[in-house]
Design brief:
2 helices, mainly alpha, flat
Length: 69
């Protein structure tokens, strides 16, 4: 579940740039179930999102010479 909000406001109040990235990649023509009685996502989308966020975090926190391809 995603709150649709962010805690980054606390960082921005201290002049720390903050960005939000979602790991949810959905096809709106097929997966338009947000806020419905049957809100869900495909299992494959979940794992792809986790992989994307892991790679993004790794790329942002690693030495450029050791960045994940």
């Amino acid at each position: 579940m995603s709150t649709g909000a962010t805690d980054s406001r606390f960082f921005r109040e201290k002049d720390v740039p903050s960005y939000g990235v979602s790991g949810l990649f959905l096809d709106p023509s097929v997966d338009a179930r947000a806020h419905g009685r049957d809100e869900r996502m495909r299992i494959q989308s979940y794992y792809e999102g986790q992989e994307f966020l892991w790679r993004l975090t790794k790329a942002l926190t690693s030495d450029a010479r050791n960045a994940v391809p």
